[in-house]
Amino acid sequence: MKYYDKNVSGIPRTAVWIKEEYLFTPDCFRCSSCGKRFSDQTDECPGCGARMTGIKKDPVWIDEIIFIEETGIWRDPQDGR
Ligand SMILES: [Zn+2]
Prior knowledge:
Strand content: 25-35%
Helix content: 10-25%
Bound molecules: zinc ion
Number of helices: 1
Number of strands: 4
């Protein structure tokens, strides 16, 4: 771990990946600093350059199941129903 990396502001910025887990689509990683989503987990955010210090899980699929149960709508992208 290097502590003297600098970005444009001169202050090393850190963030964490928020791993979004979906039911029907592949997981993606959201930067906690800039909010951009990427398919790969990297050491630095490709969007804002923040150094990633960890990962948090965001089980979006729970919300998707709640949505399905509340609405009865089963959103299967393969099926198109
Ligand atoms: Zn970022």
